[in-house]
Every structure is written in structure tokens, then in C-alpha cells.
Structure to design on (461 residues):
């Protein structure tokens, strides 16, 4: 049996050792889940699903202190932000309960022509089948909720594979789901390597795959799907923000700083590319520099820490390499640009890096904000849209005409006006386009993605 040592990214101390699931056992999980779906094609009764999730909400409240502490320990997100994540998770369970109540078909009008005379038609929604959820490291609490709870709500058996760097929180949450009353065969915890994950994802016994992670892995999984398997991919991005010359800097700068440095930039919709009108550039840079200085870096367990570690030393080294390459290629380093102890990186601001540099082209996934100056709005929009990543975008302006122009012309699955691109609530649709992914997240939307529609037509003689 192969073991996985889970380490605290800040201290590098080992916090747990857990066993990998053998490949043979992993495939047995898939087969058992598939057989369960065939036995119960409509899922368990909706009333039972609601009762389980209501019980889970109570148990999560009772265990929230332990879950928060565990999440900070394995993931490194500062405790203040982790408490917010826990609050979101609790809200997510409530949203899922309402989503169960919203599962419904519709009446299809008939008697509209001779062919449809004396016919009754309606649709039903039923579970799509086994869901294989493959998760990421950056939000251990909320990702477990988003990739497990909608499956329960939809009536689908689920197999959850956590990120190898943050497997403990989801393990605890699944234990609480069992305690809440879900029979264990409806939700399985799978800890396996990436090769085994890729093999399982090819199975024709799966009905749906929920994937959160890198675009390279996600698109590779899609290429190898069995025919008929549905997939939702949530990849990364390099979110653009435009500040028009009439933007309110007192509002915009703190929000952009938070959106760029939150969780050390390890968020798929972090503010990364910021295009600022030349008339306000100096003021913006001055204020953003100040924000970077007051964002305290350190131990994520401390309440006053705003930026914790990145997930690993390899991630730290990559971020620093990209920043140094950008500086060598002409970027002006405003602040930061240094590796610190405990896998921490200084909040960094780069001014006018080359549009061909890695920090401009790729997702940094670190506490780095790139600032570019522009003269004309159309220039900024063109630059912002010049990326294969399409996720959430933002613009700041006090002019309604400019705001409407940005909503029409900015690429994005969502466009935010006068708020930052990392904004999210869990009842809104959330998902990338282009290489950033396909399909929709958000609790209610995920539930709908995991349902299939059946049309019923009855001839009335």
C-alpha cells in the first residue's frame, strides 16, 4: 500500500499520512457506483436527499472550527479567508437543498396542429449517472461542497478525487456526509495518482465528470472520454481589469489588490492583467504599491495575516522565475519580486511587462499583478481580449456609456463593472470559456448539469 504524506505548505511539517487507493479498488468503486445507478435510476427519494443535506448543514456548523483549522494547515489560505470559505460552504448546502426542490420538468404544448392532436406531452429530469469529481487544491472546503453536494442533490452516485496536496478536508466532509445519513455507496473518497485518475476518467460507466484544475490535464481528459460522457471543465485564467480615466481609484485599488493577492494569487479569477488609462497611471501605481506594503505576509494561522504561502516550493520557484524573466525583458518592478521563507512570495507589482512575457500570456497563480498603460479605450479592450483564457473580466468607470461598451466588447463568461473579477456568489453561474473550460458551476447550475431530460408523450384516444 502506497502512502501519501500531507505537508503544511508554510512549515513543511508532515500533518498526516494517508493511504492511496489501489487501482483495482478504484475501478471497483466505479463499477459499484454504476450498478447502484442502474438499480436506482431516479436516485434516492428527494425527501431523503433534503433530510441528509439538512443534517449535514448542522454537522458542518458543529465541526466548522476543526474543518477551518485543517484547511489552513493543509492548504495555507489565511484563517480569516478560510472562515469566509466555510461560511460559503454552509450557504452552498442550503442552496443545494433549494435546488432539489427546483428539479422539475415542463409541459410541452400539444393540439397545435393535426399531428399533435389529442396528445399529452411533458418532460422529466432524472440523474445523469455516476459523477467522477476531480478537484483542485486551492479551496479545499468549498470545492468539496461544489463537487459533491450537487451530485447528492441531483441523485447521482459520486466518486470524489481530491488534490493530492489537500486531501484531508474533503475526507472529513465526506465522513460528515455519512454521519448525516447518506449510505456510503452513494459517495466514495478516492485517493489516487494522476495516471490512475486519467484511466478512470475513460470509463464508460461514468455519466459525468466534474474537473477543476489545469487546462492541459482537463482537455486531455476530455479527449479520452468514452462516448456519451458529459464533462464540465473549470480551468484557470489571467483575468483582465480595465480602469477608464474616470475610474474611482479609492474604490478600485483596494479591490484589485485584494483580487490579485487573495490566497497568494492562487485563484482562477485573480486580477492579473490591469490596464490603466495613462492619465491616472501614476496615482494608481502609487496606491497599489501602498496596498502591497500593507498586505501582511506570514503564518496563515494568524488572524492578521493577509497573504499566506503558495502551495509548494516548486510553485514558488516557478512564480519567481516568471517574474525575473519579465524584469529581464523590460518590466518595471514597482514592489515585491522576492522569495521569502516558508514558501511565501512578496506581493508583486510589475509595470508594463512585455505582452509576450509569461506573466502576460499565462496564468501566474501567484501574488503578482501586472499593470499596463493605455491611451484609448479600444486599445485596452483589444489587449484585454488578446488571451485564449476567457473567464471573468472587469472594468471600472463612472460613465454609463463606457460601462455598457465594456459589457458588450470585453471577452468573459462574466463581466464585472465597478467591482473586481474575483467576485463570486454561489447562486450565480460560474465557468470558463476558451481554454479556461466549458460547462457551468454554481450549485444550482451544477445540479442541472447532472440531470438528463426525458420527454413523455401520451396519445389520448
Amino acid at each position: 500500500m502506497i502512502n501519501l504524506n500531507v505537508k503544511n505548505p508554510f512549515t513543511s511539517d508532515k500533518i498526516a499520512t494517508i493511504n492511496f487507493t489501489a487501482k483495482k479498488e478504484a475501478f471497483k468503486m466505479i463499477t459499484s457506483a454504476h450498478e447502484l445507478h442502474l438499480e436506482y435510476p431516479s436516485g434516492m427519494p428527494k425527501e431523503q436527499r433534503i433530510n441528509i443535506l439538512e443534517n449535514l448543514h448542522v454537522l458542518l456548523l458543529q465541526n466548522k472550527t476543526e474543518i477551518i483549522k485543517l484547511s489552513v494547515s493543509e492548504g495555507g489560505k489565511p484563517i480569516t479567508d478560510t472562515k469566509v470559505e466555510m461560511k460559503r460552504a454552509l450557504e452552498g448546502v442550503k442552496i443545494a437543498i433549494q435546488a432539489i426542490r427546483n428539479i422539475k420538468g415542463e409541459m410541452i404544448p400539444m393540439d397545435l396542429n393535426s399531428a399533435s392532436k389529442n396528445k399529452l406531452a411533458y418532460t422529466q429530469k432524472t440523474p445523469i449517472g455516476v459523477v467522477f469529481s476531480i478537484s483542485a487544491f486551492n479551496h479545499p472546503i468549498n470545492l468539496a461542497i461544489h463537487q459533491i453536494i450537487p451530485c447528492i442533490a441531483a441523485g447521482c452516485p459520486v466518486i470524489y478525487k481530491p488534490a493530492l496536496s489537500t486531501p484531508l478536508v474533503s475526507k472529513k466532509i465526506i465522513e460528515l456526509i455519512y454521519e448525516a445519513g447518506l449510505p456510503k455507496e452513494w459517495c466514495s473518497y478516492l485517493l489516487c495518482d494522476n495516471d490512475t485518475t486519467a484511466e478512470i476518467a475513460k470509463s464508460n460507466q461514468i455519466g459525468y465528470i466534474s474537473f477543476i484544475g489545469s487546462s492541459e490535464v482537463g482537455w486531455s481528459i476530455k479527449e479520452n472520454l468514452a462516448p456519451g460522457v458529459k464533462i464540465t471543465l473549470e480551468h484557470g485564467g489571467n483575468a483582465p481589469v480595465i480602469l477608464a480615466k474616470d475610474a474611482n481609484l479609492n474604490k478600485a485599488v483596494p479591490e484589485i489588490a485584494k483580487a490579485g493577492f487573495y490566497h497568494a494569487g492562487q485563484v482562477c479569477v485573480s486580477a492579473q492583467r490591469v490596464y490603466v488609462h495613462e492619465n491616472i497611471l501614476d496615482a494608481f501605481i502609487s496606491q497599489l504599491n501602498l496596498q502591497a506594503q500593507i498586505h501582511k505576509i506570514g503564518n496563515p494561522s494568524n488572524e492578521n495575516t493577509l497573504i499566506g504561502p503558495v502551495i509548494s516550493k516548486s510553485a514558488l520557484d516557478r512564480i519567481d522565475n516568471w517574474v525575473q524573466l519579465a524584469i529581464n525583458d523590460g518590466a518595471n518592478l514597482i514592489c515585491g519580486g522576492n522569495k521569502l521563507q516558508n514558501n511565501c512570495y512578496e506581493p508583486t507589482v510589475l509595470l508594463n511587462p512585455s505582452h509576450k512575457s509569461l506573466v502576460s500570456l499565462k496564468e501566474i497563480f501567484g501574488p503578482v499583478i501586472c499593470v499596463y498603460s493605455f491611451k484609448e479605450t479600444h486599445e485596452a479592450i483589444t489587449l484585454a481580449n488578446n488571451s485564449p483564457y476567457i473567464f471573468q473580466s472587469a472594468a471600472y468607470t463612472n460613465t454609463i456609456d463606457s460601462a455598457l461598451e465594456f459589457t458588450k466588447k470585453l471577452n468573459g463568461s462574466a463581466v464585472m463593472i465597478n467591482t473586481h473579477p474575483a467576485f463570486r456568489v454561489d447562486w450565480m453561474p460560474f465557468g470558463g470559456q476558451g481554454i479556461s473550460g466549458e460547462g457551468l458551476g454554481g450549485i444550482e447550475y451544477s445540479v442541472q448539469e447532472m440531470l438528463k431530460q426525458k420527454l413523455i408523450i401520451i396519445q389520448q384516444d
About this structure: The first strand starts at residue 3 and ends at 7.
